[in-house]
Amino acid sequence: MPLLWLSLAFLLGTVLGSALSWPVPLWLALAGLAALGLLLRRRISLLFQSLPVSLPSTPVPYSLIILALALGAARYQASLPAMDPGFTGWYAGGEQKMIVEGMVAYPPETRDRSVSFVLRPDRLRAEGSIQYIPVKGLLHVTCLPGNDWHYGDRLRLVGLLETPPQGEGFSYRDYLERQGIYAAMLYPQVKVISTDQGNPVLRWIYAIRDRALAVSKQIFPEPEGSLLAGILLGVETGIPEPVREAFRLTGTAHIIAISGANMAVVAGLFSTLFGRWLGPRRGAIAAVLGIGLYTVLVGASAAVVRAAFMGGLSLFARQLGRRQAGLNSLAFTAAIITLVAPQSPWDAGFQLSFMATLGLVVYADPFSQAFLRLASRVLPEPMAARLVGPVGEYFLFTLAAQLTTLPVILYHFHILSPVSLLANPAILPVQPAVMILGGLAVMLGMIYLPLGSLAAYLAWPFTLYTIRAVEAFAALPFAGINVDPMGPWVVVILYAALLAITLSVPRWSRWKTVVSPSMGLAVMAVLVFLIWRAAMWMPDGRLHLTVLDVGSGDGLLIQSPTGRSMLIDGGPRASLLADALGRRLPFYARKLDYLLVAAGGEGQILSMPETLVRVPASQTVWAGSSRSGRAARNLQEYMVSHRLEAGSVDAGQS
Prior knowledge:
This protein is an alpha+beta fold. Helix content is 55%, strand content 12%.
C-alpha cells in the first residue's frame, strides 16, 4: 500500500508541475522541506496532537507524500527544454532555409506518400552562412517516398525549420512536443554524409526488425501481412486506411498495437522456452531480457513499456511465489514510465493502456464471480465453472477494460463502439494463434524463405479471419456512434460516478480457471479452411476484369479463364493496391504474371515498387509514354536492382 500512495503522489506531482510551472529550484526546496519534516515527524506529530482538529491517517507519512509530489513536479519541469540558440526548436518558424546535420534517431516510417523520421541534430547553420551552431533536441522530418534511410545514418538537410501545426480536433504540435520534438522540416533536400552511426546494439536490433518486416511482406498477402507487421513488430504504417478504420469503429484497434495481451503471449513463450533450457530462475531472468529486447524491437512506446514492465513483474512474482499486487504494480509502473518520460500522462495511448489495465485489476474477478453465480442457477456447477474461464477472458475482461477506458475514448476520439462487445469476443480467441504461428512463420522465413512461406499457411487463416470479422462488424449500422467533443471535467465526472458505483458494490472473492483448447479440432478447422479456400480460388473458366479501389489513381486487374493475371497501373498508394490485390489473388499463387505500365505518371505508378515487394510480377511491360518522372525513375531503379526486364509494346501489337 505505501508503494501505491507514493506512486500516485509522484504522478500527481507531474500533473501539478505542468499546471503551476514553478521553477525546478522551488520544487526542490519544497522537497527539501518535506524531507526535513520526515526526519522531524515525531516532533511534528506531537505538535498536531495538541491541536483540536486532527488530520486523517494515511499508510505513509504526509511528509513522504509531499516529498514524492514535489519530486514529480521537479522532474516534469526539468524535462522541459530551454528555448535558447542551443535548442533546435529555437529556429522553428523562421523564413530562412537552414542546413541541419544530425543522425537518424529511430527507424523511418514509410507510408504511401511520404517517409518520415526523427533526426537528432548536432549542428546547424543558415543557408549562406559558414558558421555552424551546435544544437540539441529532435527534429521531425517528412520526405517523399523512394528513399532508403536507416537508424544511424548521418544526414545533411536543407530546408525550412517549421513549427508543427496546431490543428483543431487534433494538435500535431502537442503530440510531437510530448516526444520532445519542437521543430519539423517538410520535404527538404537530403544528403547522406555517413552510415552505421549510433548504438551498434540498436542497429543490430533494428536490422532484425527490417529483415522481419521484409519477410512478412513476402510470405503473407495483403492486408494480412501489414496487420501481422503491426501485431508482431509494431509497424502499423502499411495497414490500409479502410482496414484501420474498421478496427477503430469496432473498438478492436488494440489488436494492432503492441498491448498487454501481446506482451503476455511473448512473456509466456519466453518463460516456457527459457525455463526448459535454463531452469525456472535463470529462465525467468532470460525471459525478462527477451521481453526487453522485444520492447526495443517494436518501438518502446509508453504502452509497450508498461506492458513489458508488468509482464516482467509477473514473471518475477511467479518465481517468488507471490501473487502480484495489481494496483501497486500498475501505479509503480506508471510512475517509472513518467520518471523516464514525464510527458507520458498526456499521451492518449498511455492513458488507454493504464485505464484498461486498471479495469482488469478492479473488475475482472468480480465480473467472473458474478457470471459464475448466474450461470450456476441454470447450469450444473462444474459446467459453469468451466465456462467462466473462456467467457471471462473473451467477454467479461473486455467489458471490464472498456468500462474504464470509455471516458478516455470519448474525450480523445469522440466515438462510441457498441459493437465492440461482440467484435472482441469474436476475434480475441484466435490472437494467440496469430502471434505464435505468424511469428514462427516470419522467423522461419528469415532463415529460409520457402520454409517461412510454407509455415505462413498455418497463420494466414487466423489473420484473415480477424480482418474479415472486424470488417463484418464495422459494416453494421450501429458499429460506431460519433459523439460531440467534451471537456476534461466531463471525464472527471464520469470517473467519479464509476468510482462511486464501484465502492457501493461489495467485493467478491477471486476465482481463476484455465480451459485447455482442443488442438485437434483447431488443426482440422485450419485444414478444412485451407482446402475450401483453395477450391474457391481455382480458375472458373471466365475472364475477370476488376477495377481496383486504389484511391485517386487507376488500377485494373485482369484474370484470364486459366488463372493468369495482369495488373494495369496501380495508383499512388501502395497500401491500398496491395490490399486490393491480396483480396483477389490466391494465397498459394500470390504473384502477377504480367505488370503493364500504361501511364508513367506519379498518380498511376507511385505504388508500384513497394507493391512489387509484396506481390512480384513475372514479366513487366512498359507502355507508358513518360519515363522521366520521379515515380517512373523509382520504378525503373527497383526493376534494375531486382533484375526485372521491361518489355515494350507498340500500337497494334497483341
